[in-house]
Amino acid sequence: MTKYVIGNWKLNPATLTEATTLAHAIKKMADNAGCHVGCTPSFVHLAAVSEILSGSKAWAGVQDVCAFGATGAFTGDVSAAQATDLGAKFAIIGHSERRQYHGEDNALLAKKISQTIEHGLVVVLCIGETKDEYEHGKTLAVLDTQLAVLDGLGVPQEKLLIAYEPVWAIGTGLTPTVFEVANTHRHIKAALANKELDEICVLYGGSVNDKNAAEFASCDVVDGALVGGASLKAESFSVIVQAFEKSA
Ligand code: PEP
Fold it and tell me: Quick check: 168 pLDDT over 80?
């Protein structure tokens, strides 16, 4: 199975020049890569990054979409329709920072997923437990609750990727063991199969870097990585891409 390595640039970089420089590097690495490579610039950089990546194998995506419509009176929002128009191929939905800082819950995320699918983008749905939930053995129950957002939405298999991102591993340098990730991914895949979604790639995210990528990539149920901090430097992102292409 071809794996996915996706960079989540978050609110980075500070300038358009830095964003386009990184995009040129990603274009180069994606065209030679044996896995799918993508990045999610901030909305203000999307048009420029998308233009650079057009005609290459790399995907540009967005970090969020408006829940309520393609256009209209939604101040501050950017819609899936607008992202599609600028060449985006996918949208990250339900990232833990959106859940934490913007109070996004399943009801709102269901609307965002519907908008994303309606406008032809692939959904990268992020799920993951907090440190407290992890320590109290609640991880799988939390993931089941988060995955319930998919119920009744009729998301086509080919339009969905899941990113398992323990909240406590994001940006901390901490990670679960690969053994733990493997067990969790097996659980996620079984839960998806119960929803008749049995061919979904499950990516791991949370402090993946150039040192630990090979270990995660060697696990047969880790179908790729969602990478934050280490995706902002072409050198480290390229090592991660190579780790996953070797294991594909
Ligand atoms: C993320 O925010 O999706 C992420 C995985 O961040 P980091 O790689 O920096 O932990």
Answer: yes
115 lines ligand 1 (CB under 6 A): no
- How far apart are the C-alpha atoms of 162 and 143, rounded to whole Å? 11
Report which DSSP code applies to 82.
H
Q: Is 62 helix (H, G, I), strand (E, B) or coil?
A: strand
H/E/C letters for each residue in 21-42?
A: HHHHHHHHHHHCCCCEEEEECC
Distance of CA 51 from the midpoint of ligand 1 (Å): 25
Rounded to 5 degrees, φ, ψ at 124 are -105, 95
Catalytic positions: 95, 165
Q: Give the bridge partners for 202, in sequence order.
A: 162
pLDDT tens sequence across 67-94: 999 999 999 999 999 999 999 999 999 9
Give residue 138's pLDDT: 98
Is residue 41 in contact with ligand 1, taking CB distance under 6 Å? no
> 197 alpha carbon to ligand 1 midpoint, in Å?
25
Closest CA to 206 of 235, 177, 233, 186: 177
Residue 154 per-residue DSSP state: -
- Do the beta carbons of residue 118 and residue 108 sit within 8 Å? no
Question: Which H or E run contains 227?
Answer: strand 224-227
| Residue 171 Cβ contacting ligand 1 at under 6 Å | yes
CATH number for domain 7-238, candidates 3.20.20.70, 3.40.50.970, 3.40.50.300, 1.20.120.140: 3.20.20.70
Q: Is 220 exposed, middle or buried (0-12, 13-18, 19+ CB in 10 A)?
A: exposed
d(CA 65, CA 67): 6
Could you give the CA distance from residue 144 to residue 190 in angstroms, rounded to a whole number? 10
